[in-house]
Amino acid sequence: MPEFITNITPSNNESDNDKQSSGNNATTGVISIIYPPPEVRNIVDKTASFVARNGPEFEARIRQNELGNPKFNFLSTGDPYHAYYQHKVKEIREGKSDSGLTNQLSKLAVVSAAQQKQQELLKQVAEQQFVPKEPPADFEFVADPPSISALDLDIVKLTAQFVARNGRQFLTNLMNREQRNYQFDFLRPQHSLFQYFTKLLEQYTKILIPPKDLLVKLNKESSMGRASTNIVLEQVRYRANYLKYQEAQKRREEERVERE
């Protein structure tokens, strides 16, 4: 939606002749305000309402919590919507109605009422609180490598590959043959690299001998058509919303601890 510039003239007792003689906006006290589009205006109005009721300390907290969030750029003095935000805060504090501003803007609107309603509905759906039922599934083939030399890392990986291909009997024979070789100490359960080796072994085994349920899942997600794409996108969306929910919960907990 395009941005509309509207002029807000503070009320005064000057006559029309006095205003005409002023000659420019600076002398008549006209303030130019850029009216934000609906998706931005909704956030600005809500923030202005909270700041008007809770004071500048609340605004400072929002600045700190939303640092780097482009949705709250209007809090910066250099942002084009900052003037509108300040106007809304002052208006709400004074208990004034913004009907005059709305009437001016309604004459300039080029987007139909149906389109605006659709945007508002989409915004409401997007802002619905996400409460996950369970965490997303772990990634199948992710294992962070430990801080070891490149040679030792190659030995661990190659050993896992050979064991996955040749079976547990190969592992038993290897442990018996290399039990005095320190480079294969990771085969011992008490070694710090044993869990990493086991994780690699599981992943290589799934690749070489994939279970049936994994094959069915991969076929669904990789088949041609929109259905498979929607499955993958839904998994990505759920994981992103879950991480966002976790961060929000952590932030609320930190704020609760600070208040106490």
From TrEMBL:
GO biological process entries: mRNA cis splicing, via spliceosome; regulation of alternative mRNA splicing, via spliceosome
SUPFAM superfamilies for this protein: Surp module (SWAP domain)
The keyword Nucleus is annotated on this UniProt entry: yes
Gene Ontology MF terms: RNA binding
GO cellular component, one term: U2-type prespliceosome
InterPro entries: SF3A1, Surp, SWAP/Surp_sf
Tagged with keyword Lipid biosynthesis: no
Keywords: mRNA processing, mRNA splicing, Nucleus, Repeat, Spliceosome
Region (Disordered): 1-29
Stored PROSITE patterns: SURP
Localisation per UniProt entry: Nucleus
Residue ranges occupied by any SURP motif domain in the UniProt entry: 43-85, 155-197
Domain of life from the UniProt record: Eukaryota
Pfam families reported in the protein's UniProt record: Surp
Name this protein carries in UniProt: Putative splicing factor 3a subunit 1
Species name: Corethrella appendiculata
